[in-house]
Predict the 3D structure of the following.
Amino acid sequence: MLISQDDRLSFEKSKPGRRAVSLPRERFSGEDSLKSIPKSLLRQTPIGFPELSELDIVRHFINLSRKNFSVDTHFYPLGSCTMKYNPKVNEWAARQEKFTALHPLQAEATAQGMFQILWELEESLKEISGMDRFTLQPAAGAHGELTGMMLVRAYHASRGGPTRTKVLVPDSSHGTNPASAALFGYHVVEIKSNSHGCVDLEDLKRHLDEHVACLMLTNPNTLGLFEKNILEITKLVHQYGGLLYYDGANLNPLLGIARPGDMGFDIIHINLHKTFSTPHGGGGPGAGPVGVKKHLMPFLPGPLVEKTKKGFEWASPSPRSIGRVKLFHGNVGIMIRAYAYLKTLGKEGLRKVSEAAILNANYMKENLKDTFKVATEGPCMHEFVLSLKSFAAQGVHAGDVGKRLLDFGFHAPTVHFPLVVPEALMIEPTETESRETMDLFIEAMKEIAHEIVTDPEKVKSAPHTLLVRRPDDVLAARKPILSYRDQIREKVLLAEAVV
Amino acid sequence: MDFPENLRYTKTHEWITVGGTKAKVGVTEYAQKEISDVVFVELPKQGQAVQQAKMAAVVESVKAAFDIYAPVSGKITDANKALESNPALINQSPYTEGWIFELELSNPAEMNTLMTAAQYHEVVQQAPKH
Amino acid sequence: MPYLSLTEEEKKAMLGQVGVRSFDDLIMDIPASLRDPKINLPSSLSEPEVQDLISKLGRRNTTTRDALSFLGAGSYEHFIPAAVFEIIGRQEFLTAYTPYQSEASQGTLQAIYEYQSLMTELTGLDVSNASHYDGATSLAEAALVTLRHTDRPKLLVARSVHPHYRETIRTYLAGTPYKVEEFGFDEKGNFDREEFFAKLNADVAGVIFQTPNFFGNIEDLEGVSEKIRANGSLMILTANPLSLGLLKSPGEWGADIAAGEGQPLGLPMEFGGPYLGYFVTSKALMRRIPGRLAGLTQDADGKRAFCLTLQAREQHIRRERAGSNICSNQALCALAACVYMTLLGKNGIREIAEINWDRATYLRQNIAKLKNFEVDSTQSIFNEFRVKSNKPFAKIEEKLMAQGIFPGVALERFYPELKDQFLVCVTETKSRENLDWFVEALAKC
């Protein structure tokens, strides 16, 4: 079956006079907007939207959708992204008009079912993470981190004492960690990983003093290892008056197995779009609820859901709150999906999810370890990292292997991350994949390893079976063409003429 | 790799050449290869004061952003505007058309801390191969 | 447990292959004192039970379809063409990751590129990002861009900007060296020109206006951008994107950044999210834009292709030196907006704006005739306007809610001085009968 090769933009398919949507014709007021509104307030320039029929548009977008890989069509072993299956009942729940047609400012008494979901979701997240209270406002993991850093700052400011200027992050951390801390003027200090890939305790001690505001940690870390010294790490940071921030990007292997709250973390964000199965949507929306221990509760953004005798209502935030971090109440549609997922899981399901996630990762690692170098020793948690450094002689990079995998019908793993591993390929199968799928992936990887030796050019120039091959990102960055307007301005109108 | 004798070098792979009280700065042949295709250069502002071994400009490739450090302290007197429309000049001719900024030296003695071509060559020899 | 694939036999065999006797051998690194926490959650439900529960909870809500709603104030009830849901429900869009692997994501990338193209058309500015979280956070990031770009310490914000937007900006800037200052509004609810000009000084990095503003008024920004430019500051404008079918665009007003809420472009209200932050700037600010950008290029065989571009600005490359930490955005919401705008097309966007204006105008004409309510019929509006009641609004709201009407948003909750005033919103979803009934009900209050 052929996928349409037509790569024209909707703008380029436009024909003057075509239209898709039918709108009511009748006007009620008897006034003419062009006369009643002063001309100086009216738009003068035309809007260059395309003109197409509904079929044109539907076909346009459905054909575009077919140019994507997705969880529902392909295995997506993208490390630290937790591309697990997105259950359909969650989608069904979130699309119910009884939720989509609720206004965020309508009276509390008229949305009690909605409140119940938000309240129960918070209760569940508290139980699972071992924290005392959550704000559901943050829209994504990075937004949660931002909120977390605000909480850190507000907490230390409320206590007086030494100026805390440093935020510590391991060198294997996600890029969002240092970026979040730096946004608030914190000096970001990287802590080295030891030879096992965990936080180097000696290096940590060297950087610990009364100026440390916080240590941000992903546990398991991005190498897929559980920080076995975690209790010592959190104790040490606390001794110096610093706070512990848990980046929940890698929470998937810990459900029902261990809780960040018990490890000593003060603040945590959870990515509902990773661990709690909500879809990634091509980059979002997600949701990044932030949980805290008691001593940080007064600083949470409001409003929070409160259960009273009259039912659920919004509680005004405490006067010490950092203030709202978002419009209204966060990405509620994502919360409904996560709620449905948690109902399906129940307390029995939690541990099963994490066990299967860990077992799948170890199975894949075991089957790949003779062909590729694994960056760490011993069992992994939910993900592991291969280093393709040994293929330097053939001039093949991790990214090339990722591209070649596309030809085998697999999405590439995370490539060139974490930065501490040269030529890294980071693999996270998640719990929802079957053994057969993993076996096919392992076979493909072995075949590619063989190709690297026998025909490295084939790997370096991959993919060969997709609609496009290696879009030129250097050209794109040197001469940015970011809209149809740019195309007209730069006269890059025809597909062939992009130079 | 070519490291002209008349230039002085830093461990962070910048070169500098002095004429009177002013000096021109760019990145070495080795650096441009490591950076790969330069797609954008964030130039320093005229009149901006820079300190030896502190960031003065940023060179971006598609996959990374590299800090360019001032080899010596001084005040920026000029920046290579040609890089704004053609950042590839850094790849094509790192020592001539690909220069990045010019500065007025505030402490000429700092020049003595920099390396000769031969010394720099040795540094590059020891750098890890990718 | 659904969604898991491994059978018990498979698990056993896999553990054997991995070389351990039991699962616990795989998690030895976790200190024993942490393991097996007691988690107090209800037992799992089957799918029919989950569906039942969701339906039951849904029935406890009174939606804006069950009632007759005139609520707006930043979240709007609009007609959404059925094709929008069908397209964004396509699993290849819904369950795809961020398009870092461009060959495997040409669909998402082209859709983002088209979204960016539509947003530049609508706002009259040059460069749009691929989306931000929502209007409030998008404005906060815009504020940061102006502060960094001009290297000045102060932000000026009109008090007629949505209260949640202003609060979010304050939260983002608290504890930084930057300061936020506000300027007020006049009797009619339009920004106070005198106060604004008085506060526009050499410390000001950026100025934020909203039009139609929080009260629904179209702000007259004549001469404003010239003054801001002459002062060396940048102008940020947040506008209801749907109103731009009819009203002057941010580009035409001379704004440097258009940032705000894209929910009216085909997204349901959904109790507040997920929505869509739009962010569009002049070319001069292109490298300061937070978040992702899709660009047009060609592939190794010279074919047209799309990819994410200018990524060296972003956190995954610049880490602590990135201008913003955003990673996940609102891609699927941007896709919905993209499909919505394409469906409306060149003429539809203008018509829908006119219909909103016409129906709001009709309702205002009729409320003007009531003796217990006051409206300002001389004020230019789009689809929202202020109503002043002679009686306590709480009582009126209670009475109307009993009849299944959500009369609007009480302004006192955001502006204590605006007692017994409320904000009424009318969109194309309201018929003449709806509006007449509302007026009748108000008359009886």
Q: What stands out?
A: The mean pLDDT of chain C is 96. Residues 82-341 of chain C form a domain with the Aspartate Aminotransferase; domain 2 fold (CATH 3.40.640.10).
